[in-house]
């Protein structure tokens, strides 16, 4: 009988403790003050959009193909800057749909990535991990901080559509736009390209090469990577020409076929040069695909595409376009053959290397 009584008391205490922990958790969650992130500083959007968290809206992409329209709704390259003295940060976000990619982490395609300004540099804090079933998640991204006022930058999902986003802080904390933003929006690089530009296959959003360049320079980067669909359609050139830019980068050669490069590259680039003569353009070759060292067909196609785009560049330079510049793809991934996740798309090492190769060229072009 004593054993049974002890057993019952033990489980009653366990049950009461569980209730107390749950109540504490709910209380802590209830007291968190959430703020719609649209009211904070948002970077990485080439044009204003409606809905808010997309890269292009229906009025801007109405002439583009359906795959480009769908990819334009992904929030790749968009980030939120804010300041707070909260001892913790929570993030609540909703996505348009659940996703699965066999060469990308859920944190990259559907999660978020937080950085803080520390000692004058952007430093990684933590990721916000999406749920495996739900499209809405609340994540305790960082806790137990010292309460100092800091600037933060939160990168959004790179291969999913964000529907809503809220930043949560303690009730007594301040939450504002940065007084001295760590990103200078007057220095803006607009990049058009492929799945690699969009972010395949960084481990998290902050490790795409535009994001790495942005943190190292303080420039705003506009990521217009459209997975498999950066094919130099003339309508895209017309759209790019409407965007504020200090430099244009065309890193789209992985996607068009040799035939498409022959037909489209010259009118695409010439239109942008004529419409925006004050803006330098950096034309980037496709990197050498690792599989192309063994698959002879792939290797031959890559070689042909780079030759064709080099020919277009040479032709335009002869016509007097001094603001056009060229970057070989030879060194973009390094030379140890460890820069991709699947023989095609960059891993974090590949993105770091591409950022380091492109950065000196971009610094020359940035006015």
Automatic annotation (TrEMBL):
Residues 186-362 form the SGNH hydrolase-type esterase domain. Residues 34-174 form the SGNH hydrolase-type esterase N-terminal domain. Pfam families: GxDLY, Lipase_GDSL_3. The keyword Hydrolase applies. Transmembrane segments: none annotated. GO terms for molecular function: hydrolase activity, acting on ester bonds. Keywords: Hydrolase, Signal. Residues 1-28 form the signal peptide. The keyword Signal applies. This is Hydrolase.
